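Quick one:
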Amino acid sequence: MSLNETGKLIEETRKIIETGQDGPNNMDLLNMILKVVTNIDSRVKGMETKLDKRIDDLHQSMLSVSTRVRTLEAKTSRNQRAACRLPGELSRQNPTPQNQEPVPTEIQREGSGENTGYRDVLMTPSNDTQNGRYKRQRAGSSPETPH
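Output:
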């Protein structure tokens, strides 16, 4: 029975009650009410079942996403630790020195250049980054003397 049919049945029941004793006896009226209540109950149970399934699906999706996030965090952490090793340090996984070029950390403007009076200089970490020393390098050129 659809909701529209249920509404019509309730309306008919109301009309019968209002007219009084001209309608069906009390037992017929109770059976009609029982039919309406049973229909409503079955609809609610169906909605609860669908909702429970959707909640379970959502929960499984959240667990899956959470697992992926933890996996990516662990992988990122391992990659960051590997990237933070000093040049020449031996890796446990790859026992060859890591001779990688230092990554530029900033670009500074300094000294007299063309019309502007400045030139771009890349400041890159030197092998002695623990003491805060940097190599100066003109943007796009080879390293100059350390500072």
